Amino acid sequence: MAPPHCHVIRYQTKKNDKIYWYYKLQAAEPIFTTATDNNKKSKYLYLGKAGSEAPERCSG
After folding, report:
1. Chunked in runs of 10, what are the mean pLDDT values of the chain (60 residues)?
2. Mind giving me the DSSP string for the chain?
């Protein structure tokens, strides 16, 4: 379940003439810890490629 005031965004990228779909959570305010700095917050939490398993940091 997503935190309050967050929603899932689906977006695509193109690489080598192939299209890849990804998902991320987007919050109104920076609430997610960044992967590189636990003291820094982001509005986005990348969930992964369509069909992939959820990353560990999304499991609670």
Report:
1. 83 90 92 90 88 55
2. -PPTTEEEEEEEEEETTEEEEEEEEEESS--EEPSS-TT-EESEEEEEETTPPPPGGG--
> Which residues sit opposite 21 in a β-bridge?
12
According to the model, what pLDDT value does residue 54 have?
56
Measured CA to CA, the distance from residue 29 to residue 17 in angstroms comes to: 34
- The model's pTM: 0.67
Domain ranges of the chain: 6-52
